[in-house]
């Protein structure tokens, strides 16, 4: 039976394969598949028996009690540890050495035109209670631009200063001596002169004391007193006493009352002049406050009392008003209307022009009206810009003119009426501390006089540039450029006729290089008036041409 079933299975398989082969051949012969209908019949159904759902919980397994019963006992345990001392020791950092600040320096050099240079400065090192110092210098040239030693000049001085810092007040005192030496070398070309007869020398002695409050309180004050004495080689002598007082009372952070006062007594003696005192007293109270939109106001007045004989009135009143309007946090627009009396003395004139003749007229300048508007801007942390204009009405403004009888000496003349002065100015300051600095300023002036034909020896424009660059702390480059022009002078001809002459524009380029061999020692080279032009700022007085100087500096 088993054999028969196997045989039938084999026969069935063979027949099935033969049928498939036949069908495949039929497709190849016809090239098409005939439609076939296939029917699938599902007859079997899977059935499962119904499950029984249990709702009863499974009972716990019975357990027999433990014998004997377990008992628990609780005991207090004590654990003693050694006492710990919690003493905290702060971390001790390595002491940093303070920067070694030099107490002074000694510098020496020599240049063409027989020009020695010496300078020394010394002050005590940092002390919270006092400061003492001394400064001495010599800067001279044995020769000049006209006839060698006939135009030599020099400047030397010695000054002492001291300050004492207390809990309540600060005291300061100073004393000094300064000498200005020159020659009247503005004589006609080719004239034979004796050098001793044209030599001029000014000696100035100074003493000063002052005190101020040291505490930072709502009320502050300062007092000062100064005495100076000037004597020239001839007969001119002048003594000056100055007394100053300043105080301020802070009402609030944005309100304050301030007061400043100054008294000056000047006594001068000169050829043909008897000693006579010239006094000037000025007081300037004002109230400063801040209004809406952070606008700052300063409202006050200036009262002056003087005894100069050129003006018929001795008592003068001037306004003192200033308004600061912030256009932005870094830009301010400032307008002011002020006035006052500007002190003029033989010493102040001498510092502008050392070729003064004897008994020059001297009067204080009365600023009747001084209107100013300017813009202050801080464009970045290092760049500052200042620009604006001013217009002033002045009385007793002095002008230098050459003496009619001696063209090498100057005297002063005054406008009988008032002088109008307009000034347009702009300045830029770029400051990177000790790394680099650059300052530029330009001014344009115009004068309107009543009786004088011109504003003699007053420049029409001026320009200055000062720059410094420190190259990695080893080489310091610095430069100065000065240019001015529009100067008119009054020339007296041989026939005593006078004419107006225009001085050529002045241009001066200076350059300095200092190389630091070490922290204490450096060498320098100064080049002055590199363009070499003998320009004139005062008629008949050309300046030296190209000048070069080399030297050394020791810091200690």
Report on the architecture of this protein.
This protein has 556 residues and is mainly β. It has helices spanning 2-30, 346-352; strands at residues 104-111, 115-123, 130-141, 153-165, 169-183, 199-213, 219-232, 237-252, 255-270, 273-290, 296-306, 315-328, 331-342, 365-378, 383-395, 398-402, 410-414, 419-431, 436-448, 461-471, 475-485, 488-492, 498-502, 506-516, 521-528, 536-538, 541-542, 547-555. Helix content is 6%, strand content 54%. The strands form 4 sheets. It has a 22-stranded antiparallel β-barrel. A two-stranded antiparallel sheet has the order 16-17. Strands 22-23 form a two-stranded antiparallel sheet. Strand 24 (506-516) and strand 25 (521-528) form a beta hairpin. Mean pLDDT is 88; it is low at 24-33, 79-88 and 93-98.
Order of SSEs:
HEEEEEEEEEEEEEHEEEEEEEEEEEEEEE
Largest sheet report: 22 strands, antiparallel, barrel
Multimer state: single chain
Number of helices: 2
Radius of gyration equals 49 Å
Low-confidence stretches: 24-33, 79-88, 93-98
Distance between the termini: 133 Å
The general outline is: globular
Number of strands: 28
Fraction in beta strands:
over 45%
Average pLDDT rating:
88
* Helix/strand class: mainly beta
Helix content: under 10%
